[in-house]
Design brief:
It is built from 12 helices and 22 strands. By secondary structure, the chain is an alpha/beta fold.
Length: 419
């Protein structure tokens, strides 16, 4: 089995793994200015998608240009989320006026016609249901505990069993239970986003987060909580509800929340999410945002890395007062405005670099396994070959694994490995 790493190798973002030039696992993009895409122009016979985040599924429509129609295999929530992300990418990055955004540019290298083709080639599968996307390749999804519908992907041929972990978490979250799947594998392609971090206990993070939100509002301030639309927004809404904190929710997270409530079988506690959504005030009219930003309230909004979305209105609106709070709730990729704000106290908004006097704090609500979680997961694969990817320190983590007796390495982008 030949594995070609088209993206996501020694980096976070644009994940794409080509198996034997026939089966493509994930095809994502790294949002930024400019965005970054997987290398090469793969023409797979079929595509398998681990989960519905932009860095794993954001570029899928581009595979359907011309006469190409490879079937795309995923879980139902992953399909729903990927289609929503594609529509949002066209809206934000596509060219053309009016309601239709045509795309087909570097900023958005697919069109609305290609996005719509995704529904034609979609093939849905549940966890633990083997299927054959390409003759001679059996694939099975296992719950990865990252976001609703996320999957470990097992690809099996006559002589090799590959486990592509996708993004995963071994601890429980309010929205999901941690993964307990440890399927047999000869080769493991393992994410390593938090390979050098030990997560603080979730209860302690939630307590501190809730206290800071309450304190901000009591002192007459506004708290803006940038959050990823898929998974993180819903997690934050559930934390606010559990701590009796009223909030607004804005951006694509509003649509994702409603979508996930239609897939209750993929949630840990669908009723808790339903109650949290019922408590929140959903912002339907963009014209309300500046008025809401002047209130003493909590606003949960996309984008989680400040690379777009309503956060680009809310953060500049509250930036001038240290009474206000920007509470970052997710990983901030190097080079994003969120990372710049966290490191330097300033960020680019609408082509202007603005200082932010509001307090800026980061809370570790990660949906990824930390160092201990990764080690615990990989303990089941001491006899397998381990390929470390999807991280800022892939080579260092691979070296740590080798020192502990693993057969581990960290391939680079565009590198092909014989598995």
């Amino acid at each position: 089995m030949n594995l070609r790493f088209l993206g996501g190798a020694r980096e976070v973002g644009r994940s794409a793994l080509l198996v034997d030039d026939r089966l493509l696992v994930d095809y994502g993009m790294l949002a930024g200015d400019p965005p970054r895409y997987p290398v090469g122009t793969p023409t797979p016979e079929a595509v398998v998608v681990s989960h519905g985040h932009l860095d794993h599924a954001g570029l899928l429509p581009a595979l359907l240009a011309g006469d190409a129609r490879p079937p795309v295999h995923w879980t139902p929530p992953t399909r729903d989320l990927a289609l929503l992300l594609a529509r949002d990418t066209l809206k934000l990055r596509g060219s053309g006026g009016g309601r239709e955004r045509r795309g087909g540019t570097y900023d958005c290298p697919f069109t609305d016609a290609e996005r719509r083709r995704l529904t034609e080639v979609s093939r849905l599968h549940g966890y633990g249901e083997p299927f054959e996307p390409v003759p001679g390749y059996e694939v099975t999804f296992h719950d990865a505990g990252h976001v609703p519908g996320s999957a470990h992907v097992v690809v099996e041929t006559d002589d090799t069993r590959l486990l592509y972990t996708g993004d995963f978490h071994t601890d429980d979250q309010r929205l999901l239970s941690g993964t307990t799947a440890r399927p047999d594998a000869d080769v493991v392609v393992c994410e390593s986003t938090y390979a050098d971090v030990s997560h603080e206990p979730r209860d302690a993070v939630e307590t501190r987060f809730a206290e800071r939100l309450r304190e901000t509002v009591w002192n007459g301030g506004t708290a803006v909580v940038p959050a990823f639309a898929v998974g993180r927004t819903q997690e934050v809404l559930m934390i606010c509800a559990a701590n009796d904190i009223d909030c607004y929710v804005d951006g694509m997270g509003t649509r994702v929340t409603r979508l996930l409530l239609d897939r209750p079988d993929y949630l840990r506690d669908a009723e808790a999410l339903r109650e949290a959504a019922g408590r929140a005030r959903f912002v339907e009219n963009p014209g309300q945002r500046e008025r809401i930003a002047r209130q003493n309230t909590v606003i949960v909004t996309t984008s989680g890395m400040l690379s777009g979305g309503p956060a680009m209105t809310y953060v500049p609106a509250i930036r001038g007062s240290p009474t206000n709070l920007v509470a970052l709730t997710g990983y901030q990729v190097e080079g994003t405005p969120g990372r710049e704000l966290l490191d330097r106290g300033r960020a680019e908004f609408d082509d202007r670099v603005l200082p932010v006097s509001a307090r800026v704090e980061a809370y570790d609500f990660s949906a990824h396994a930390d160092r201990e979680g990764l080690r615990e997961f990989l303990a089941a694969y001491r006899d397998a070959r381990v390929m470390v990817n999807h991280g800022d320190r892939c080579e260092a983590f691979a070296a740590d694994l080798r020192a502990d007796g693993y057969d581990a390495r960290a391939p680079g982008v565009n590198e092909t490995v014989e598995a």
